[in-house]
Amino acid sequence: xxxxxxxxxxxxxxxxxxxxxxxxxxxxxxxxxxxxxxxxxxxxxxxxxxxxxxxxxxxxxxxxxxxxxxxxxxxxxxxxxxxxxxxxxxxxxxxxxxxxxxxxxxxxxxxxxxxxxxxxxxxxxxxxxxxxxxxxxxxxxxxxxxxxxxxxxxxxxxxxxxxxxxxxxxxxxxxxxxxxxxxxxxxxxxxxxxxxxxxxxxxxxxxxxxxxxxxxxxxxxxxxxxxxxxxxxxxxxxxxxxxxxxxxxxxxxxxxxxxxxxxxxxxxxxxxxxxxxxxxxxxxxxxxxxxxxxxxxxxxxxxxxxxxxxxxxxxxxxxxxx
Amino acid sequence: xxxxxxxxxxxxxxxxxxxxxxxxxxxxxxxxxxxxxxxxxxxxxxxxxxxxxxxxxxxxxxxxxxxxxxxxxxxxxxxxxxxxxxxxxxxxxxxxxxxxxxxxxxxxxxxxxxxxxxxxxxxxxxxxxxxxxxxxxxxxxxxxxxxxxxxxxxxxxxxxxxxxxxxxxxxxxxxxxxxxxxxxxxxxxxxxxxxxxxxxxxxxxxxxxxxxxxxxxxxxxxxxxxxxxxxxxxxxxxxxxxxxxxxxxxxxxxxxxxxxxxxxxxxxxxxxxxxxxxxxxxxxxxxxxxxxxxxxxxxxxxxxxxxx
Amino acid sequence: xxxxxxxxxxxxxxxxxxxxxxxxxxxxxxxxxxxxxxxxxxxxxxxxxxxxxxxxxxxxxxxxxxxxxxxxxxxxxxxxxxxxxxxxxxxxxxxxxxxxxxxxxxxxxxxxxxxxxxxxxxxxxxxxxxxxxxxxxxxxxxxxxxxxxxxxxxxxxxxxxxxxxxxxxxxxxxxxxxxxxxxxxxxxxxxxxxxxxxxxxxxxxxxxxxxxxxxxxxxxxxxxxxxxxxxxxxxxxxxxxxxxxxxxxxxxxxxxxxxxxxxxxxxxxxxxxxxxxxxxxxxxxxxxxxxxxxxxxxxxxxxxxxxxxxxxxxxxxxxxxxxxxxxxxxxxxxxxxxxxxxxxxxxxxxxxxxxxxxxxxxxxxxxxxxxxxxxxxxxxxxxxxxxxxxxxxxxxxxxxxxxxxxxxxxxxxxxxxxxxxxxxxxxxxxxxxxxxxxxxxxxxxxxxxxxxxxxxxxxxxxxxxxxxxxxxxxxxxxxxxxxxxxxxxxxxxxxxxxxxxxxxxxxxxxxxxxxxxxxxxxxxxxxxxxxxxxxxxxxxxxxxxxxxxxxxxxxxxxxxxxxxx
Lengths: 322, 308, 565
What we know:
- The complex is a heterotrimer of chains A (about 325), B (about 300) and C (about 575).
- Helix content of chain A is about 35%, strand content about 20%.
- An eight-stranded mixed β-sheet of chain A has the order 7-8-9-3-10-11-13-12, with helices on both faces.
- Chain A has helices at about 45-55, 80-85, 100, 110-120, 125-135, 145, 155-170, 185-200, 215-220, 240-245, 250-255, 315-320, and strands at about 5-15, 20-30, 35-40, 60-65, 65-70, 75, 90-95, 175-180, 205-210, 225-230, 230-235, 305, 310.
- Chain B has about 300 residues and is an all-alpha fold.
- Chain B folds into two domains: about 1-75, no CATH class; about 90-305, MetI-like fold.
- Chain C has about 575 residues and is α+β, with helices and mostly antiparallel strands.
- Chain C has three domains: about 1-65 and about 230-285 and about 535-565, D-Maltodextrin-Binding Protein, domain 2 (3-Layer(aba) Sandwich), CATH 3.40.190; about 70-220, Alpha-Beta Complex (Dipeptide-binding Protein, domain 1), CATH 3.90.76.10; about 315-525, Roll (Dipeptide-binding Protein, domain 3), CATH 3.10.105.
- Chain C has helices at about 60-70, 115-130, 145-165, 200-205, 210-220, 270-280, 290-295, 330-340, 340-345, 375-385, 405-420, 430-440, 460-465, 485-495, 500-515, 560-565, and strands spanning about 40-45, 75, 80-85, 90, 100, 180-185, 185-190, 230-240, 240-245, 260-265, 285, 305-310, 315-320, 350-355, 395-400, 420-430, 445-450, 520-530, 535, 540, 545, 555.
- In chain C, strand 2 and strand 3 (about 80-85) form a beta hairpin.
- In chain C, helix 14 (about 485-495) runs antiparallel to helix 15 (about 500-515).
- The chains are: A alpha/beta (about 325), B mainly alpha (about 300), C alpha+beta (about 575).
- At the B-C interface, helix 2, helix 3, helix 5, helix 7 and helix 12 of B face helix 6 and helix 12 of C.
């Protein structure tokens, strides 16, 4: 049984002046021991998907899903109180900017241990010890002292270690990391990714990695889902994607990554802009920008498994796959 | 930390000095003759001249001021021209009434205003929030004097639920405190409301929710302390204004506080008392600023309290 | 006295229990407790200045001072002098210059010591002493040797200051020759010149008995640590907050006072006091505030509890006879004809009577048939034209700002004057400023003013306010700066006259002359209205002291009493 199995998840904003869907019919699963990466440009809906899992979307958002199963339990049936029990305990989340994600007036230790106190009702002293221990586990130097510090007293990397500690202290089965390294220095990025890898290896935890950094995907993920305009356009394992991307968007995306080896190569960009979600074209949403555009693209496209484990939302992909 | 406080106190002393100069000058520019007040309306010219000389009010202004400062530094603010009571003594005995009423009002602002601000921020744009907004605007617009009179008239005089005026028991403090409270609670509710809304958009709030914390904890442990930081300054400033004398409230309810003392002093041209009450009010402002400066680092750890 | 009185901002509410010169009148409820005890609750708007009888000099203070201190003489329920601490009225020498008083025996100060004649010698000397700065010292200057004494004491003070030492008596004389202790209980006072007002002066609180040892003990704190022979002592005075008086256990009249004490709340305006009174938080309302007056008078619950009395006060417009246009008597008379005094009275709900002249109706020597001015705007215009002001003129009208009532009166006057072409612009100032400005020579042309009696004698109005030979440059009481040598002459004569009847005749003659000369517009004499609770018994107003209680008591068996908060 997959740790996480999402079927047909949508997040819409029906009451906006021009209603739209930020996430449209997204389905995916994460198996034990695997890491799934969500890749896409800013605004494609990847963060909203993650928030929808936790039901932390903005108040005017409407979430619909056929099922969202965490270790077999369907979260869509959960009351808000039951959902709260899932947050921080069944699912942990790490955010992009650790400086913003930590409350400046509370100590590190306080924030690390509060999930523990909220979910397991541990007394303060015990929870504090566990928090210190957790900080040590995530590589925080001198964790006892660090726990008494305030966020502004730590560097970016250490702050992120702290947020990771806070997210995993209750031993969730799923960790969501939304752009966990984007706000950090390059050297620190590597450290954090190493930390995550180590944690995954040591625990029974899967990772949902949200990023726009393809390099990160290549290094850290097992499976990848490419999102565009709120829907998944290609979903497969990482090697397959990098070896031979099938969906035109995925192809264009990979092509646009600058390569160090190709000094003379002109930087390839994707023509056109991301579409207005309130005013999507019927049929394939990528068609306006697609170089492979043809007749038949005006029809709505479904996500189809054209090869075992390879899902693509393009009718022409089947043709290339052969 | 101590350096900061010392600096603050230094500025405070300068503020007081400046205030004293201005008040001193203003009071001596006004036409009514303090010597006449001291001697009574029946005194004849000889008596008045003699008195003037004895009180050394015929010395040049700068000399009088210098004497005044010298004595003030020793804690002697002179004597009331009317009652001959030492000004310091009068301030000391009248301050408790002002303090009691101020605390009552402040308590309402804090105990009612803050939770209302928090709740309306959490449930913004609901009918509840909109109703509270209107009520807050009403509360801010109410003149203290008017509200006090209305409450006094309806609840004390007509209704008989409270004493009308004076300060004999703690019951006499209820209506004045409520008056002060109502007039300010709307402001604090809105202040906390808008600060809370801003704070609630912060990432760390989302992160706290993502950890599965109960909403109440998110609001009061995570959001509120951040939202309150700017409120502390405002509260400090308002507290200072109150403690300098709540003139309208004290007048309406005949409370023997510093505010009514100031009014009486002005009406009877009691120069030393006027100077004394004004300086007292200024001192309250200075004190409030110092206290806020001391409190700030305790509340917001980001503020460096000394060398890192 | 000029300040205070019924129209002013702060009015004292006070309870006074009469000194025991009268046996308690009125039936005490037979054998029951209800006739004794209880604390009378009153309110004043601002603190009084002092309880030192040598200093206190306004309508607020006197009634409270009289709770604690007493003089040799007092008044009955009217304006007749009766013995106070004296056994009987003094014997007077044939030339009218010497008065001999015999003291009651067994009277004790609140500190336990018996009252003796020497105490009065000391007390009056104290009032005369320049160091005391008593506003009443002028009243006693007519005592033989007083001036020399004052000069000597002044020198002592100057020397002491120069040498930087506490005063001693270096300069002689050190006594007032005219104040004589004949024996332990007999006092003799000799005057420089006869003065029929002397007995009135001896009834004033300035002439109260003050024990020397109290002055020695308290020094300049005596004003809040009074020691007297009166029916009450001061238990507590928290300035700006309250005063509490307690029954004097050593009071020389058995069974008096009937009250246990008096509590005076300080602070709050008249509107608040009225509310407190109606809720039973006060026992007596000194002056019914203007906004409530009509309602109270129309309320069957309260109307029967209203007492009213003419205050011995005259409100007037002072016309500065030394400044144009009021140098011309025709203009002054025109002012009197131009103003509709009945209408002005309506402004204050008819609480008063129109003034015919200078003296209030309660004053001995008041002439109800005084020839005076009617409301005749046509006549006014005619007179103005004769004087050369056919087109009228403009003049500022000074008025005190702190009581709404005075301003409203001034506005009514302003309207009347406008009808005859006189443009009076209101100039509202603080009371102290008004006094100061109007006391300066050649300063204010037209001001709304008033005077309340110090004691019931015409000289207290005519001599103080209208003598040309007493005009000074500043702090002049003659606010109209009126000077008529004939009037001055008559007044000088009357002051020395020992024939009471003839004297009053002279004063009446003077008053008529003054009315004809019209240095004032004679406006009105206010009526004073008090309101008391139903359980407050035997309440009466007094023409000299205003409030004074002969046999005042709180009937605690009254049903209303038990309902009070």
